[in-house]
Write the structure tokens for this entry.
Amino acid sequence: MDLGKRKGYTVSEQKVILSFEHGEAEIWAVTSKIINVFCGLESREHDSRAIEENREQAVKLSVEEREDGLWIDTGALSVRVSDGFYVDFYDENGDAVCADYRGQRKPLQVVSDEMLKILASEGHKADRGTGHVFDVLKQLRGDEYFYGLGDKTGFLDKRGYDYEMWNTDNPDPQVDSFKALYKSIPFFMALTGEHVYGIFLDNPCKSFFNMGQESQEYYYFGAAGGNLDYYYMSGNSLAEVLSHYTYLTGTCPLPQKWTLGYHQSRWGYTTLEDVEEIARGMRERDIPCDAIHFDIDYMQDYKVFTWNESRYQGDAAGYLATLADRGFKPVAINDPGVKKEKGYAVYDEGVEKGYFARTPQGQVYINAVWPGDAAFPDFGNPAVRRWWGENQKFLLDKGVRGIWNDMNEPASFKGPLPEDVVFTDEDKTSDHARMHNLYGHLMAKGTYEGLKRLDGRRPFVITRACFAGSQKYATCWTGDNHSIWAHLQMAIPQLCNLGLSGMPFAGTDVGGFGSDATGELLARWVQTGCFSPLFRNHSAMGSRRQEPWQFGEEILAIYRKYVKLRYRWIPYFYDLFHEAERTGAPVMRPLVYHYEKDEAARKCNDEFLLGDRILVAPVIWQGMNKRMVYLPEGVWYDYWTDEKITGPVWFVRDAPLDVCPIYVKAGSVIPAMEPMSYVGEKKEDVLLLDVYPGIGEWEHYQDNGEDFAYRDGEYNQYHIVVDERGISQCRMTHHGYERTYSRVLANRFGVSTELETQRA
Ligand code: MIG
């Protein structure tokens, strides 16, 4: 996009409005470190669905006309705008960090119409034009690593690949060459030798991120519609840049504590007996478990907000209550498609009130999903979100504790929805091309707000489709993976990149969804899965069953060991979630997040950190019983042997099937709890602290684990200091939650000591 020669500018508070030969554009300093670059190709407004609050902070701008362009300085960075609307960013020392590329995009290869057709029929990308209304080309410096971009396949570093943002449900085994999956999070961070920055393209249309696949000289992002509207974020670390992104789009609110427990699911638990077998199986075999998921078969003819009571002895609510008595929280799936059936109240009401998407001719738009012909709620309309939210009462009244949003890309069985299907975008009329990537986001938002109004506890919503900002309303899972080793391998970079995209609460289907698991795969998968923020085993109808006990005693024992380890450390996970709400920091982090300058960390795809204290190096290859481990700088302890190891170092660790190598940083204290078969089984009266000598400190957080009272100060905070001899201090620094620990036990290499807690 070239706007031609610069003609002039005006400054209006923190915005610089620039006029060019061929149009107008804006640079807006949202904060001194967040700059918005805007050209209203479609509208004059930002109309953001990702950023819901005014985030502007006072900045003193200085604007200076120089020979080489207009320089805008915020005190923390400067922006140079030159002819053509080229925009370059400099740090406070005047170093160029991110510059527009001055050349043209490489001409696309021209092929015949006939060839295009053949290519397209074979599924190749074969458009001759770009179809983009704009591209922003940035210079590729050569030493960049790119992170983020949501749930894309492949590895941690996105450099050299190209992607599309168009929420897509593709059941084929997802491999590195996939351009799009279920989520569109048009945000990435670039890490160079010296600098780090982030870019968020706030445009919900289909967009394109070519991170150096097309050229070695530039990378680009562009979109098929909407405005050129992106945010440049500067910072001294990935953590800081990410905090700017979540400052704009919001952080993940603290979840109910039980949601951090183990979830068991399968598409195929249809009757009361099926579910009961699972509930009993978990308790009898001593596998801690907090949630059982109800997939589409609980419904009557796949109609949302119905329950097939005949499969639950005529009393689903009664049965769910018996689950609750045993500590299980039922989570029910909720698809958007509403069965087209006269006399079905949800459909009738939706038609009557105009709550469904329409054809350009004004008819209710019908496609097919699980219930057969179905209408699609118009979630961009606030009244529709409210209606959908109120309907959750049906499920809550049955005893459901969490809502699982599936098929909300939206997926459809009779071809994709045409781009001109009419949707609402708040107070305006819009279309599918503009609302597609927001559909799942808005469904989750309606669900979250409904649950919050009706139930009052922290809503638990799991969604498959997302847009930037969905972390405010939902946790997510990565959709239909397969029971193949490549997908266990992919889980690590995929979940790490989701964390780097503002979505800390994420998980993959442990054991794999499609295809058939083996015992070895399941054992290895639970060793990674027990550390992923959302920990759920789920599989597809027709695939080999993969509950923990399906592969014999050895696998069951391994499975139990890792689920128990997860439960032991739930207080640590909860602390990390508390940090995520406050700062936007991920729970599961790639090594590069804390070791940015470390080349090995920048490229590491097969290890990850939990917070900054625990490093996990799981085995993710069949037949392997030794594992090459990399530990970055610092002193680490082997979790299993307590051996002290100083990094940076590469070494080989024995890893028979029951061992997942885990390392804890010296100077750590990992808050832990006594064994429980579900969260809340016992009062959390005893705080266990797993101590690893060295210099360090930790903030431990405690509340009722359930509602929003913590926002009114009903929580406790403990400041814990560690030195070479162990814990030197454990002090309560905030006392707002009435229940406190009656005992605090420090566990140092297997030796337990009682600690005195100093009161606030
Ligand atoms: O067309 O509800 O990703 O988790 O089990 C398949 C059935 C629909 C896809 C979800 C999967 C779920 C399945 N659903």
User: Anything to note?
Assistant: The pocket of MIG is lined by residues 267, 295-296, 333, 406-407, 464, 479-480, 513, 538 (CB under 6 Å). The longest strand covers residues 626-638. The chain is about 20% helix and 30% strand.
